[in-house]
Recover the amino acids of this structure.
């Protein structure tokens, strides 16, 4: 008998280990579709932990406008298997997901009805390909900008030096004023080129707490917009410290949050959210733990004509903008092995910073 119990416990541990490492989202619910169990893939898909949603009805977790949950409920009531392909889900964060769904009725020994729900995210492969293309595109743009900047900096230096020499030879203050304009404009162009290149130093990695970095950013943006702007926080306090260049991350986060504040014209809502993603792929590389930082606002959204070029240098929708903030932010996050994604529609814009929690050598230096 003791041997049988030991074998049973081992079989249970093996079953949970398999569930924990499945890429398929597995959800166990009762007859009212109240959640009883989520495997890590389901937590990742639904953007909620089991602790957060245990006992909660599925309709309260999924923002469903297509009647999908109602169709699930009908299948449960009829004790019938159910399958539906390419179901469009709106997740709690506002992000869309497309899944193939299978529902299987179960029956326990005590007669209590339960259902097993399996969801395979079919847009995952498309997202991976898109991320890989975006990372390659950013790397190519970075090399292009560096090449152009090098070609611009050399003649700028010569132009500035010639203007300084000419200034010494001019007899009147009125004429010297023109050379000062040349020198001033050359300096302005030099600063613009330096900003396009972004920080050239290697990341100085140390232990960082993401919430301390976000609070620094929140304080700065709140001080710049004292009236009309509300910045809310939805932090996961269980997120551990990780190794990164805190100053670089603050700069990247500040660029994104400031961009949101400017889109809102200083009046509206910005939400800062942190979550941990498990067994998550960035590009073609899978990571055990990934930190997700969301910056969400209720502004007008990204203009459709800018959607494909939003992270390009010099692309901006504001007359007084340089179009460098998001490009630099993407570059800084890329140097940590991460990526910035976004989705946007009128009234809801979401930028998600994805950062591997494990240490990685800088690939962009």
């Amino acid at each position: 008998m003791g041997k049988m119990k030991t074998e049973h416990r081992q079989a249970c541990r093996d079953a949970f280990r398999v569930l924990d490492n499945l890429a398929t989202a597995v959800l166990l619910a009762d007859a009212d579709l109240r959640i009883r169990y989520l495997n890590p893939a389901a937590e990742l898909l639904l953007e909620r932990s089991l602790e957060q949603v245990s006992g909660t009805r599925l309709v309260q977790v999924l923002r469903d406008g297509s009647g999908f949950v109602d169709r699930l409920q009908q299948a449960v009531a009829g004790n019938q298997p159910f399958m539906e392909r390419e179901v469009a889900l709106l997740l709690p964060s506002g992000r869309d997901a497309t899944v193939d769904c299978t529902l299987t009725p179960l029956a326990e020994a005590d007669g209590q009805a339960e259902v097993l729900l399996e969801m395979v995210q079919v847009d995952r492969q498309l997202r991976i390909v898109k991320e890989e293309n975006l990372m390659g595109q950013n790397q190519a743009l970075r090399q292009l900008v560096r090449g152009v900047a090098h070609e611009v900096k050399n003649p700028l230096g010569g132009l500035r030096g010639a203007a300084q020499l000419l200034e010494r030879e001019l007899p009147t203050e009125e004429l010297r004023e023109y050379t000062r304009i040349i020198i001033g404009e050359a300096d302005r162009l030099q600063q613009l080129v330096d900003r396009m290149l972004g920080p050239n130093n290697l990341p100085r990695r140390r232990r960082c707490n993401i919430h301390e970095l976000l609070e620094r950013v929140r304080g700065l943006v709140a001080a710049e917009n004292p009236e009309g702007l509300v910045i809310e926080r939805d932090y996961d306090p269980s997120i551990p410290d990780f190794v990164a260049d805190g100053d670089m991350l603050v700069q990247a986060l500040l660029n994104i949050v400031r961009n949101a504040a400017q889109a809102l014209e200083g009046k509206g809502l910005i939400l800062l959210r942190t979550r941990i993603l498990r067994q998550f792929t960035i590009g073609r590389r899978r990571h055990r733990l990934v930190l997700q930082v969301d910056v969400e606002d209720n502004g007008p959204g990204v203009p459709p004509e800018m959607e494909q070029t939003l992270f390009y240098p010099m692309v901006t929708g504001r007359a007084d903008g340089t179009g460098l903030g998001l490009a630099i932010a993407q570059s800084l996050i890329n140097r940590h092995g991460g990526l910035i994604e976004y989705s946007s529609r009128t009234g809801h814009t979401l930028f998600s910073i994805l950062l591997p929690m494990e240490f990685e050598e800088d690939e962009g230096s």
